[in-house]
Specification:
The chain has a single domain (about 5-275), classed as Sandwich (Jelly Rolls), CATH 2.60.120.10. The radius of gyration is 18 Å and the shape is globular. It has helices at about 115-120, 270-285; strands at about 5-10, 15-20, 20-30, 40-55, 60-65, 70-80, 80-85, 90-95, 100, 105-115, 120-130, 145, 155, 160-170, 170, 175, 185-190, 195-200, 205-215, 215-220, 220-225, 230, 240-245, 245-255, 260-265, 265-270. The chain has a 7-stranded antiparallel β-sheet with strand order 1-22-19-24-17-14-13, with no helix packed on it. A 7-stranded antiparallel β-sheet has the order 2-3-4-11-6-9-12. By secondary structure, the chain is mainly beta. The structure holds manganese (II) ion. Manganese (II) ion binds near residues 65, 67, 72, 109 and 111.
C-alpha cells in the first residue's frame, strides 16, 4: 500500500469580493504552485469561508456574466444561492446542496443570495470549483445538474464515525449523482471527533482537500486547520484523515486533462485563437440572452 503524501498545507489567502455577494479565498490557481495545469481538471477554487452577511433589501451577488469551455460546481454549506442562466435553467442551491453547471459552448448566468436569505441575513459559506472540459467537449451544449440533498448518496463510516457524501465519482462502491466528462471524485467527508476515514485515488490524479469545519490530521501527521487547503503529491494512492474535532472536509481528486490551457477571465479554451473566438461570439450575442 503506497501512501499519498502531503505536498503543502495552505492557509486561506486574503479574501476578495466576486460581485458584492461572494467573499472568497482563491486557492486555485491562487498562490504557490497551483496553476491551472497543476490541479487539472480543477482549474479554479474560490472558497467563501463562513461569513455573516447582514440583512439586505437587494440581494447581493454577481450580475450576468458568460462562461465557455468548462463547468462550474457550487457547493453550499451555509446560506442559499439563486441561479439563473441563458439556457433557461434556474434554481436555488440550499445548504448541503450542489449545482453542477456545464457551460461548455457558452452560457450567461447570474448568481445571487436567495431573496429570503438575503432579507434575513445570516452565515454564508460556499465553495465554487471550475472543472475543465477536454477539447472534444468544450463546445458541447450547456447543461445543468441540480443535486439536491436527497440525491446525495452517503457512505456511513464504521463505529458511528460520521459519513462520506459522494457528489461525483465514488467512494467504497457508492457512486455520486453528478455526471462528469472526465474522471472526477468529489466528496464531503463529515467526520465525528477522533474518527478516521481512508481514501484511495490513482497516483497520477490531482488530489486536494479543503477543511470546511473543524480540523484534521492527514496520515496521522500533517495538521490541517479550518479553512486550510492541503495539496497531495502525485506519489501514492492511499491517505487517511482523522478528525481532531467534528469536521467537514471537501475532498477532490481527478484525472488531469493533458491538453494546453488558454484562459482569460470567464473563458477557458485550448488555444489563443479559441479564446479570441469566445470573446467575439460573446460580443455578437451568441451566448444567448439573460436579463
Ligand atoms: Mn459564474
Amino acid at each position: 500500500m503506497t501512501t499519498k503524501t502531503v505536498e503543502l498545507v495552505m492557509a486561506p489567502p486574503a479574501p476578495h469580493y466576486v460581485g458584492d455577494g461572494f467573499r472568497v479565498h482563491n486557492f486555485i490557481p491562487g498562490a504557490y504552485r497551483l496553476d491551472m495545469q497543476r490541479m487539472s481538471p480543477f482549474i479554479m477554487l474560490d472558497y467563501n469561508s463562513k461569513f455573516y452577511f447582514p440583512p439586505a433589501d437587494k440581494p447581493r451577488g454577481v450580475d450576468v456574466h458568460p462562461h465557455r469551455g468548462f463547468e462550474t460546481v457550487t457547493i453550499a454549506y451555509k446560506g442559499r444561492v439563486a441561479h439563473h442562466d441563458s439556457a433557461g435553467n434556474s434554481g436555488i442551491i440550499g445548504e448541503g446542496e450542489v449545482q453542477w453547471m456545464t457551460a461548455a459552448s457558452g452560457i450567461l448566468h447570474k448568481e445571487y443570495h436567495e431573496e429570503a436569505f438575503s432579507a434575513a441575513g445570516g452565515d454564508f459559506q460556499m465553495a465554487q470549483l471550475w472543472v475543465n472540459l477536454p477539447a472534444r467537449h468544450k463546445m458541447s451544449p450547456p447543461k445543468y445538474q441540480s443535486i439536491t440533498r436527497d440525491q446525495i448518496r452517503r457512505y456511513p463510516l464504521p463505529d458511528d464515525g460520521g459519513h462520506i457524501e459522494i457528489i461525483a465519482g465514488n467512494y467504497e462502491g457508492i457512486t455520486g449523482a453528478a455526471s462528469t466528462f472526465t474522471p472526477v471524485h468529489l466528496l464531503n467527508a463529515h467526520l465525528k471527533a477522533e474518527a478516521t476515514a481512508p481514501f484511495s485515488f490513482p497516483e497520477h490524479y490531482n488530489t486536494a482537500l479543503l477543511v470546511v469545519e473543524g480540523s484534521i490530521r492527514i496520515n496521522g501527521r500533517e495538521k490541517v486547520p479550518t479553512d486550510n487547503f492541503a495539496l497531495f503529491d502525485n506519489d501514492g494512492e492511499h491517505f487517511s484523515i482523522t478528525a481532531l474535532e467534528n469536521s467537514v472536509v471537501l475532498v477532490l481528486s481527478g484525472e488531469p486533462i493533458a491538453e494546453p490551457i488558454a484562459a482569460h477571465g470567464p473563458f477557458v479554451m485550448n488555444t489563443r485563437a479559441e479564446l479570441a473566438q469566445a470573446f467575439e461570439d460573446f460580443h455578437r450575442g451568441k451566448f444567448g440572452r439573460l436579463s
